[in-house]
Amino acid sequence: MFTNSGRGVITSVTDQVMQSADASSVTTFLLVPCRAWNVMSESLRRRCVSLMDANRTDWFVSLYSNQLRVEQDEPDEESSFILHVDAFFPGYYALESVRKVPYYVYVNSNGYLYIGADQPTAVTYKRSASFKLFAFDTFRTYCFLLRTRQHI
Q: pTM (2 decimals)?
């Protein structure tokens, strides 16, 4: 997951979710079925997702107050988001909190990810709440590493 500025998202030592300094430190989050599917309307279920840390099964991006952290065994609504395509800018996604509607995930000025109320006229908010998502292919990653080792 990358922010509108092109910076990746990572988890810190304290499991807070923040913007990364460079691409090498980006944490991979897997989009998994919504953990709060049973409380969602049928029309929103297809767009509802949870983000699981690819390196730690059952650790999800969750709300802690209004800040995002990676937690284990959090309530389902705390770790579920509605995925909006082209919400603020073409080609970008926005994540709306299931727990607090209409609050979206955004990057605060301190670099940490929070949720905040939609600000329809604030361009700065829209930029900080816009993300790119990239496919994660373990087979391709493995092949790339294998080829790299052969050339050394």
A: 0.81
Rounded to whole angstroms, how far apart are CA atoms 81 and 35?
9
CB distance 110 to 125 below 8 Å? no
pLDDT for the residue 151: 27
pLDDT digits (tens, 9 = 90+) for 21-34: 766 667 788 888 89
List, for residues 61-84, the tens digit of each pLDDT value. Answer: 999 989 999 999 878 999 999 999
Q: Which of 18, 21, 101 is nearest to 67 (CA)?
A: 18
> Which phi and psi angles does 8 have, rounded to 5°?
-75, 170
CATH number given to 2-151: 2.80.10.50
Task: Answer for the pair 29, 9: CB distance below 8 angstroms, yes or no.
Answer: yes
Domain borders along the chain are: 2-151
